[in-house]
Amino acid sequence: MASREPSPPPDLRTIGGFLRQDSLRHSVRILILFSLGINRRLGFPELLELTGLSKGSLSHHLDQLAAARFIESRMVFTLGGPRIRVEITARGQEVYEELARALAQLGSPAGDVGPPPGPAAELSSE
Amino acid sequence: MSRPVNAPGSPPPAEERGNDDAPQDSAVGSDQLGQIADRALVFQNFLLRRAWGVYYLTWSAALTGLFVVPSVLTGPLSSAPLWALVLYYVYLVGVIALATWATAWAFTQSARAVRLRQLREARSVARRRFLQVLAVSLGITALVFAVSYLSSFAGLLVLDASLGAVIVWLLIQVRAWFSRPPPEATIAISTYGISVVGSALVLLLTHQQALYADFWLLATVAWAFCGTYALYHSPEEMTGGVS
Fold it and tell me: Is residue A111, in this structure, part of any structural domain at all?
C-alpha cells in the first residue's frame, strides 16, 4: 500500500518552484544569486573568486541568470580600468529573499559557518 | 546523496564550461540550499575581513587628521590667520566624512550577510541592533559638540567620549560576524581602548594636550598595521582560515 506523504509547507513549495526553473537548476547559479543578494553588486573578478570557475564558464552562468532577469551586467569605469559589474535586479532580489526565508524553514545547522570540506582548500595552492 | 556545492578551486563539470548543448543539471535539492548559503557566507567572510581592513586604514588616516596633525600644527595654528583655521577645519571635516563614507561602504553588505547568517543559525539581533543605533547616535552627537570646541580641554574630553562609544560598536560588529575574532580585530580594539582611556586620563590628570595626542598615535599606528594585515590575510577566509 502506497504511503501518502504530507504536503510540504508553503515555503518549501515556493522553493521547489524556484529550483525547478532552468535558470536556477545549478548550484553555482544559486550561489551567485545568494552572494549578489547579500552584496547587491559584485565585480566579475570577485565572482570568479567566489565560484572558482573559468571566465567562460562564469559568463555562461551569468548569461543564464541574466536571461531570467535575475541579474544585470554593466561595464563601469574605475581607477583600475573598465570593469564588468554584476548587479542583482529587483526580481532576483525577490527570489533571493524567498530562498533565504525558506532556509529558515528548512532548519539550520548548529555551530559556526565554516568552509565546506573538499576542494576549497585547493585555492591556497593556486 | 546530493551533489556537493561547487567550491572554489574545483574543476567545473562539463555542463559549466559554457556549452549550451551540454546536459543540464537536475534541480538542486532543498537540502543543498543550506550548503550553498554556507558557501556564500564563507565568501562573505573574505569580503568582510577585507572591508574591515579598509575600515582600519581609513580611520587610521582620520585619526592622523584628528590628533597627529593638530599636535604638529599647534604652534602655527595658535597664531594662524582665519583662512588657515578654516582650511584646517575643512580638512578635518573632509577626512571624517571620508572615513564615515568608507565605514558605510564597508559594512553595508555585512549587515545583509549577518541577516542571512541569522537565518542559518536562528540568532536574534534585535537588541544588538538597538545598541548599535544607540552607540552610533551618541558618538555622532558627542562628535558634533567636540568639533565645536576642539581646541578646548572640554572639547577634547567630549571627543574622547564620542570615540569611546565607537568601542561598543566595534565589539558588537566583531561579535556579530566573527565567531573567533581575527588577530587584527583584537589588536585594533585593544589599542583603541588603551588610546581612549589613556588619553582621557592624561588629559584629566595633567591637562597636557601633547601627551593626549601621543596616546592616539598608538591607535593610529596600530590601525594602519591592522588594516594592512587584514587586507593581506583576508584570502585565508576562503581556505578555512580565521573566523
Answer: no
Name which of B149, B145, B162 is nearest B199 in CA terms.
Answer: B162
Residue B32 falls inside a structural domain: no
Is the model's pLDDT at B224 over the cut of 70?
A: yes
Residue B207 — very low, low, confident or very high, per pLDDT cuts 50/70/90?
Answer: confident
Total domains present in chain B: 1
Instruction: Please state, rounded to an integer, the average pLDDT across all residues of chain A.
Output: 75
Under 8 Å CB-to-CB from B181, ≥6 apart: which residues? B174, B175
Residues B36-70: tens digit of each pLDDT: 888 888 888 888 888 888 888 888 888 887 776 66
Of A15, A16, A123, the CB nearest to B238: A123
Nearest to A39 among B4, B28, B109 (CB): B109
Tell me, what's the ipTM? 0.70
Residue B15 covered by a domain? no
The answer, for A65 touching chain B at a CB cutoff of 8 Å, is no
Three-state secondary structure of B109-167: HHHHHHHHHHHHHCCCCHHHHHHHHHHHHHHHHHHHHHHHCCCCHHHHHHHHHHHHHHH
Q: DSSP state, A20?
A: T
Residue A92 within any structural domain of the chain? yes
What is the span of the domain harbouring residue B79?
59-111+122-235
Task: Mark which residues 75-114 of A lie under 8 Å from B by CB.
Answer: 99-104, 106-109, 112-114
The size of chain A, in residues, is 126
pTM over 0.90: no
Determine the pLDDT at residue B188. 92
CA distance linking residue B41 with residue B18, whole number of Å: 26
Q: Which residue segment(s) compose the domain that A94 sits in? A: 10-106
What pairing do the DSSP bridges indicate for beta strands A41-43 and A71-78?
unpaired
In a domain, B66, yes or no: yes
Residue carrying C-alpha cell 529550483: A19
Instruction: Name chain B contacts of A103, Cβ cutoff 8 Å.
Output: 33-34, 37, 116, 119-120
φ and ψ at residue A81, rounded to 5 degrees: 110, 180
* Total structural domains within chain A: 1
Residue B129 CA to residue A57 CA, distance in Å, equals 40
